[in-house]
Amino acid sequence: RRLAVPVAEKMGLSYEDMVEKMYENNSNGDWEEFADVAQRLHWVQHLVQEIREDGIRERPTSTRSFGFFFQMEEQVDGRGERYIQLPRLNPYDHWYLHNPDGYFRR
Predict the structure, then answer these.
(1) Is 99 part of a structural domain of the chain?
(2) Which of 94, 89, 90, 95 is nearest to 104 (CA)?
(3) Residue 75: inside a domain, yes or no?
(4) 30 by DSSP, 3-state: which?
(5) How confident is the model over 10-29, as pLDDT tens digits?
(6) Is residue 88 included in any domain, yes or no?
(7) Are 92 and 72 within 8 A, CB to CB?
(8) What percent of the chain lies above the pLDDT cut of 90?
């Protein structure tokens, strides 16, 4: 009732009338409608006419390979700590490694 009563009021119906209509439209009460009908039933106020995807449209096609970690050159920083410099990642890539002592660096 917490959700159904406000929806029924929005539709201009009593709770009981809305439940009756729910079972008229579907035998299990799961009433589904597309946007235009949902707007006529006062389930929604606004309809989206167009959705644009302005982000990345294609995955990169680069076949750049990083090789294995043991092929990377170990370096020593100004404090005398050893580390390996990780190569730059391509889009959609990530490093998934446990690095509590900061041995691998970007």
Answers:
(1) yes
(2) 95
(3) yes
(4) coil
(5) 889 899 998 888 888 777 87
(6) yes
(7) no
(8) 19
Closest Cα to residue 84, out of 64, 65, 70, 63? 70
Residues of the chain with confidence (pLDDT) below 70: 62-71
DSSP result, 47-96: --------S--S----------GGGSPEEE-TTS-EEEEPPPPPTT----
Residue-averaged pLDDT of the chain: 83
Strand arrangement of the beta sheet that strand 104-105 belongs to: 74-76, 82-85, 104-105
36: domain range? 4-40
pTM: 0.39
Give me the residue label for tokens 């409608």: 33
Any domain includes 79: yes
**Total domain count for the chain?**
2
Strand partners, 12: none
Q: How many residues are there in the chain?
A: 106
CA-CA distance, 29 to 70, in Å (whole number)? Answer: 61
